[in-house]
Amino acid sequence: VSGHERERLSAYLDGELVPGERAAVEAHLQACPECTAFLAELAAVDEAASALPAEAPAGYFETFPARVRARLQPRRAAFPVRRVPVWTWAAAAALLLAVITPLTWREIRPAAHETRTSEPPASAAAVPKTTHQDRQLEEAAPAPGAGPAPPAASRARPSAPAPLRRAERPLAAPPVTEAAPREERDQATEGGFAPEPSAAVGGVVPQQAASREKAERVAPRSGITAESAPPVMSAANAGPEAALASRQAEEDAFRRLEAVRPRTPEGWRRVREQWSALAAAEADPVRADEARVRAIVAALEAWRGGGGEGDEAAFRAQAESYLRRDDARQRPRVERLLAEATARPAP
Amino acid sequence: MGHSAHPPQAGAGPDEPFLLARARQGDLAAFEEVVRRYQRRVYGVALRIVRAHDRADDVAQEAFVRAWRSLDRFDPGRPFGPWVCRIAANLAVNHVRSPRAREQGLPEGHAETPSADPGPLGAVLDAEAKRVLDEAVAGLGPEQRAVFVLRAVEEMSYEQIAEALGISQGTVMSRLFRARERLAKALSPYLGGAATRGKARTS
């Protein structure tokens, strides 16, 4: 029996012969005990080999899924709600300070503003990342080459659910680069929430914008100091715990939605609707504004992600309607989205 | 054979299409559950090809990471297991081929513990036969071994194997045959009558 014929026996065993060949092999097997035995032997080898143990050390599979997940967990925040933990600690410190030193507070505040606005971008970019207790390994996808420091990736809030997000796909939204008046920025800070370059994930955040925002709003570099605290005061005055709790719930809703990264146009359409609903329900104008922009971005994603003309139309309508609003805070960002969406990008 | 070794674990929580749909939307918790269900199978493929735990661990993790990243290309109407095993097999072969792996050399068969369910033939093969077979599998080239593992253990079609390893179906057929032939030769003293007749025939 030739090697070629025995090779055909092997393929016959696997059911990989075309009908004509199969019939020929079967006819041959009828008359050839040798080949019949060889076939049995091949089958036995397969069976024996698949019965060989492939075992891992004890306990290996207990932790394996979590280790995989840790590799998929993003390292960087794309959206300021990620910074909420920092703000939360700042708020806690603020409450403490408010109790301990109510009188000195207002004297600190102007100085704090000075400090904040004169913060050099470089040191702002060096905000240390605090680690997430759960998992912080990042996905293998490397940070963008131009890599400014991740926007304050602090995720230290102990009770926070592990953020679920995909870190692969850059969002469409370019960063906000216009300088907002200080009042507006303070408002944003008070909300714990402000326009943010969503390109932070997978995209490149321009150094200037990223570091400016950090310098303005994010964590103090050496522990919790007064400089980040004042904006919280109004909420605290209204009833500290209650205010914090409700704010926390709102932020969680934003954060959950922000973490949704659908892979399909349908998914993005749902996300768009949810952002629109959040925007409608949101009392805080800054957060409502951001939710509206998020809805526009989601509409764009639905279109970019393979959606049809309806998605394009929805995106344009949503963006144009936003630009007609008197209270639109992020015109340049949305105008840029519109300008860049002249054609569907290559998938 | 192979498939009975990794039951789909039906009835253990949400069904697979649901989990995969969630995972496709970016739900890491859902994907973690999918990993939990397929980890042994993927690790098994990896270990059988790379022949060392630490490397199999690397490969298995990487296979799931790649699967996650490619979920939007995965057809949810098809079973996830073969798909992720193909990814693992491809990674495993590349891993064994890598210069670093070559430097380290192939280990002498992995540490063995008796299998809980050795299967019908495994039951009659004594420990010595297992050791011999394991060494013979280790002695195959990585490409041959990968083809053999995907067929014998994972019961994949030639088409699936060809796709997983980036080779033609004809190459799958010939590599598989050569692998089986070598293993049969090594195992023949333990295969009783079939082996005897096989020896007479080998010329």
Please provide a brief summary of the model.
The complex is a heterodimer of chains A (347) and B (203). Chain A has 347 residues and is mainly α.
What does this structure look like?
The complex is a heterodimer of chains A (347) and B (203). Chain A has 347 residues and is an all-alpha fold. Helices cover 57% and strands 0% of the residues of chain A. The longest helix of chain A is centred in the C-terminal third of the chain and has 20 residues, at 240-259. The interface between A and B is large, with 54 and 73 residues.
Describe the SSE topology.
The complex is a heterodimer of chains A (347) and B (203).
Chain A: H1 3-13, H2 19-31, H3 33-51, H4 60-72, H5 84-100, H6 105-117, H7 121-125, H8 182-190, H9 207-217, H10 233-237, H11 240-259, H12 265-281, H13 285-304, H14 309-323, H15 331-340
Chain B: H1 2-5, H2 16-24, H3 28-50, H4 53-69, H5 80-97, H6 99-104, H7 119-124, H8 127-139, H9 142-153, H10 158-165, H11 169-187, H12 193-201
Helix pairs in contact in B: 2-3, 3-4, 3-5, 3-9, 4-5, 5-9, 5-10, 8-11, 9-11, 10-11
Task: Pick out its properties.
heterodimer; A: 347 residues; mainly alpha; 15 helices; B: 203 residues; 71% helix; 0% strand; disordered N terminus; disordered C terminus
Share of helical residues of chain A: 55-70%
CA(first)-CA(last) distance of chain A: 54 Å
Helical amount among residues of chain B, as a percent range?
over 70%
**What summary fits the major beta sheet of chain B?**
none
Q: Supply Rg of chain B.
A: 18 Å
User: Whole-number radius of gyration of chain A?
Assistant: 29 Å
Number of helices of chain B: 12
- Alpha-beta content class of chain A: mainly alpha
How confident is the prediction overall: mean pLDDT of chain A? 64
- Main beta sheet of chain A, described? none
What is the strand tally of chain A?
A: 0
User: Helices and strands of chain B: which structural class?
Assistant: mainly alpha
Poorly predicted runs of chain B: 1-5, 7-11, 105-118, 193-203
DSSP strand content of chain A: under 5%
Mean model confidence by pLDDT of chain B = 79
H/E series of chain B = HHHHHHHHHHHH
Shape of chain B: elongated
How many beta-strand elements of chain B?
0
Q: Report the β-strand fraction of chain B as a percent range.
A: under 5%
